[in-house]
Amino acid sequence: MHEVEAYIEQFEGDQYEVLHYLHKLLSSYPTLSPKIRYKIPFYYQNKWVCYLNPIKNEAISLCFLRGYELSNEHGILESKGRKQVLSIDFKSIDDIPKALLHDTIKEALYLDEVIPYNPKGKSI
């Protein structure tokens, strides 16, 4: 069993279902690799693309590390006061906007592939 799958097995109910669904979805992209970092699942391509963050027995937050660079044209991502990371929270699988989420993931993968990472406020 992969370390991320072992991590997901620790959860129950809706959190387990959402983590399991999002892990399967993210793992379906052949260029993404899951790893446990900072005690939560991160997904890498060239650099960190996103991570799954459980929120105190309530929801699962899907966080995009370069979220501020994404178009977020559908407005599904929230900053929550962060300067770089944008995220979307899911309390159940029914909360997941599947088509919009695919578009956001594809955009994040494209960004990671084509545009080198440049931390906000720093020039190359």
What are the segments in which pLDDT stays under 50 over at least 5 consecutive residues?
Answer: none
- The whole-angstrom Rg is 14 Å
Total beta-strand segments? 5
Return the CATH architecture. Answer: Alpha-Beta Complex
Task: Name the helix and strand elements from N-terminus to C-terminus, one letter apiece.
Answer: HHEEEEEH
- Describe the strand arrangement of the main beta sheet, using strand numbers: 1-2-3-4-5
Helix content: 25-40%
How far is the N terminus from the C terminus? 41 Å
* The CATH topology: Aspartate Aminotransferase, domain 1
- Counted by DSSP, the helix tally is 3
Q: Report the sheet-strand fraction.
A: 15-25%
List keywords for this structure.
single chain; 124 residues; alpha+beta; Aspartate Aminotransferase, domain 1; five-stranded antiparallel sheet; 5 strands; 31% helix
Summarize, please:
With 124 residues, the chain is α+β, with helices and mostly antiparallel strands.
